[in-house]
Amino acid sequence: MAGRIIIVLRCRIITFVVRAGRVVGKRSGALLAVCVLTVTAAGCSGRAVSASAQTPDPAHSTVRSFASPDPTSTPTPGAAAGPPPLPVSTVRQLPDGAFYLLAGRDLGSLNVWEITPDGRERLLTRCHRGSGIDGFAASRAGIVLAEASGGADNLARLTSHGPAWLRPDGDGGALLRGSSPDIRGNGTIGYVTPPGNAGRHGAPADFAIWIRRSFTGPAGMLLRQRRALDGPVFGPDDGVAVEGWVGQPGKRQPGIIIYGHGRVRRLSIGVPAIPSLVAWGEHAPALALAFPANDAELLFPDGQRQPLPAGWQPLAWNPGGSELLMQSATALGIWSRSAPGQVTRIGRISPGAQILQAAWLDRKAPLGS
User: Fold this and answer.
1) Is residue 227 pLDDT above 80, yes or no?
2) Residue 355, phi then psi, degrees to nearest 5
3) What digits encode the pLDDT tens for the residues 280-292?
4) Which domains does the chain show, CATH number per domain?
5) Lesser CB count within 10 Å: N end or C end of the chain?
6) CA-CA distances (angstroms) from residue 206 to 168, 200, 224, 367?
7) Tens digits of residue pLDDT in 80-99
8) What is the dihedral of CA 343, 347, 352, 353, to 10 degrees?
């Protein structure tokens, strides 16, 4: 039976599972000041299943074409996915593109959902209650997951048959430990490892950020430090941003560190709090920062900041970097650079559902074979 040490730091939950005398880690962000913890169990598979059919709301006009629901609509017994995170009426109002959501009833039941351009809402993973996915990322190169069925987070590529576990050497050997991944359109993957959990890369006694040029390629260390780190996010011009600590020794505060073109920029954020989510992208003009108990903001690479409308938190940029998918406590909306003072409401989130991450692509992400 695993014991548990739980550290809650400004509504970011870091869980260390003590199993057979060793410590392995799982780190999750909590949005909108919702800090939830559930026990870790086991098991995740990835066969896609269409969401249950729901009656469309006639009060909403149709923005996208909507496909008929797949008759195989019920998750397998034992799966903890719960209902789809978005009702049909909200799906119909989404802008063009493919959407991917990491959602569940709580942190112990998170799964990845796909909303296709033709309006199909599909369950892509089947994590049993408590196993949970710590993080995911999607691009035109595929979907990468951090899944904790073994106690610590392992990285996997999502295929049509389920997660295909990544290996430090590409072939065979131990599983690749890592959390909070991101993936570029060219297949480059970034992730974070906790102290002593870097597999065959030397097991540094610090948190470390790694960049891997493909699902099977070698990884190189970008950054290591003793203070807790979240995973990297990719931006324009090969930029990589990491939540870190900036300022003089003894006066360090949470901030954003941007690497790119041989330069390192350390940017202060608008509030003395750790962001619960950082959204960037290959065409995004700024980093969108969500906070557990503060208003969201945009942080530009030159250090300028712009507040986002109160009551909404960012989830993902659109592929062109002109709009943000936003979330309130009960609804989704769209923020646009052309109307920065407001959020246009799309529709409600399913009752009881929590959305922790999202990706917005111009087309479906490919699943590996």
Assistant:
1) no
2) -110, 120
3) 999 999 999 999 8
4) 41-361 (2.120.10.30)
5) N
6) 18, 15, 6, 33
7) 567 899 999 999 999 999 99
8) -70
